Structures are given as C-alpha cells and as structure tokens.
Known about the structure:
The protein has helices at about 15-45, 55, 60-85, 90-120, 130-160, 165-195. The chain is an all-alpha fold. Helix 3 (about 60-85) packs antiparallel against helix 6 (about 165-195), helix 4 runs antiparallel to helix 5 (about 130-160) and helix 5 (about 130-160) packs antiparallel against helix 6 (about 165-195). It is elongated.
Amino acid sequence: MKLDHTLPLEYRSEENSNRIFGFWLFLGAEIVLFSTLFAVYLTLWNRTGSGPSGHEIFEIGPVMIETFVLLTSSFTIGLFINSMRQGLKKPAMVFFFITLLLGAVFLGVEIMEFVTYVNEGATLQTSAFLSSLFVLLGTHGAHVTLGLLWGIGLMIQIGREGFTLDTANKSFIFSLYWHFLDVVWIFIFSFVYLKGLM
C-alpha cells in the first residue's frame, strides 16, 4: 500500500481518503434529512391547536446549557484531532473523553427538557407544532446518542491499538460527524428556540 507521509495520518492511504470522501457524501444526505425536518417544523410552528406554543414551554436556561456544552464539545473534539496528529495519545484520549462527557450532559439536559414538556401537557400528539418539534429534536438527540456509542467504541479501539491508519481515519470521520451535529444544533437554537421565545 502506497502511503503519502506528507499528509496527516488519517489521509495517508488512498483508501482512507476515499472513506473520508464517502463520509462527506453521507453528511450530504444528512443535510437533506435535517433540511426536511426544519422545513416541516417551520411550516407547522404556529399550528398549536389547543396546545401550548413555543413561547409558553421554552426555557432559555436549559437551552443555553445544551448550547454551551455541545459547542464546547466541538472545541474539545478539535483538540483531540490535533493531539492525534501530533501522536499524543494520552492528551488525545482525555480530550475525547471530555467530548463524550459533554455529549452525555447535553443528552441528559435534553431528556429532562422533554420530561418537563410532557408534564406540562405538551406531547407528540398535542399539536402539529409539538409533533414537528419532538421529531426534529428527537432526531438530533438520536444522532448524539449514536455518536456517544460510536465514540465509546472508538475510544476502546484506540486504547488497544493506538493511532494507526485505521483508527486515525475513524477518529477523523467521527470528528466530522460530531461537528455536523453541532452545526445542526446552531440551527435548532436559532430557528426553534430563539424564534419560539420571541
């Protein structure tokens, strides 16, 4: 296998470069998925029926916590990739663990938020607005959950094998996925919560 040592470890083989390109194509499909969910939400956001509106159920406190921890995790996953490229396994693993911990905090706050909504009578069946809200937020939350499981598996593999062509490639692809989830959250924060609180 021909390797180009002028490139970062995750790009050094042609197979690795192809995998990264393929993942960018996958993210393109994910953009279509979330664009559809946003379009549905923005169509139905004022169809509240007899149920509460966003202004009545949204609380800025939990949303700010979610935003802070998820954006911070985007920074720490960047530090993880930087450490990986320098061959610093221990700092890389610390940054990866912090990233996953922040992702778990995000999920915990989101679950508490959902429980609060349901306790206030805001459920999936209450109105078109709430059904579109739960599907959008739930889809993003499911992606974060998948990312956490993927990240735990990847940490175990890196712990056993260190940084190889394979683990470096997987790590970089994971970082693309995690950054993508953060970008989606920025749109959710802007077009769901800030719009709903106005």
